[in-house]
Amino acid sequence: MRIAKEFSDQECLKRLQQDDIQAFDQLFDLYAPELCRFAHGYLKSHADAEDAVQECFLKLWERRQSFDAGILFKAYLYKAAYHTVLKHLRRQRYWVFEECGEETLIEEAGPSQVIEYQELEQFYQVAMAQLPPRRREIFALNRQQGLSYARIAQDLNISVKCVENQMTHALKFLRLYFQAHGMSLGLALLVLAQC
Length: 195
Hints:
The protein has 195 residues and is mainly α.
């Protein structure tokens, strides 16, 4: 059963900054299940997904005093979950190298891997160039510079809803573009973020 959102993000922020545990619990109950499903899609482990989500909420609690008034908790939590998933995947990748014997290790960034990365980067840039200029700018501000939707809206003097719409259209186009070329957009973004 989904819990109804009984207060706005601004009211929730105010309560969190007053150390209101009940507000934190309501946020957790509202978003944790869908964030777990999101994280599980990448990590393929319920335990790892739950750890990632708990880490996101722990960071939210620790940083509650530093959020600006325009925060959108759903957007913040999904972005935090995405970065936490990347961190978990990098850690898993590192452990794979740690568990290998010295004789089985190869150079982590050998010539063929560098070429593959460059080809993927070039393919990504070609796809990005096909986005309308404003959409490309918004996508780059969010995914490459890590700005929140609220910050992008403020910087570009547009509504947060406009930013959300542009991001939705950009992701849809890029996903279809990569699929048409036999690739996964999610995988490409992970690889490009790791290198």
